[in-house]
Amino acid sequence: VNNIPFLRNTIMKYVLTSRSHLIESPPTYNVNYGYKSWEAFSNLSYYTRALPPVPDDCPTPMGVKGKKELPDSKEIVEKFLLRRKFIPDPQGTNMMFAF
């Protein structure tokens, strides 16, 4: 059967179309929700499309649990991203040598 392209393609088309209903497809896009960005709206993964964004009248910014206010972004940057002291590479290499 694999040596005859027409027969192979016809059988594979039938198998794929007849069994395609067994696989769950992600839900369709819903424009009733206020997505933060185009990437969030057009994300193709199954689980992010299944969960709608947090509604505007929700008591907390991240859902029904958590703090009432998010911390200031400058505070987060200073706490987690700002480097206080330089830590040299233990091997003594430079990552910018190619530039």
From TrEMBL:
SUPFAM superfamilies: Heme-dependent peroxidases. Its main location: membrane. GO terms for biological process: fatty acid metabolic process; response to oxidative stress. It comes from Canis lupus familiaris (Dog). Substrate binds at residue 19. It is found in: Endomembrane system. GO terms for molecular function: dioxygenase activity; heme binding; metal ion binding; peroxidase activity. PROSITE patterns: PEROXIDASE_3. PANTHER family: PROSTAGLANDIN G/H SYNTHASE, PROSTAGLANDIN G_H SYNTHASE 2. GO terms for cellular component: endomembrane system. It comes from the Eukaryota. This is Cyclooxygenase type 2. InterPro entries: Haem_peroxidase_animal, Haem_peroxidase_sf, Haem_peroxidase_sf_animal, Oxylipin_biosynth_metab. Gene3D superfamilies: Haem peroxidase domain superfamily, animal type (1.10.640.10). Keywords: Dioxygenase, Disulfide bond, Glycoprotein, Iron, Membrane, Metal-binding, Oxidoreductase, Signal.
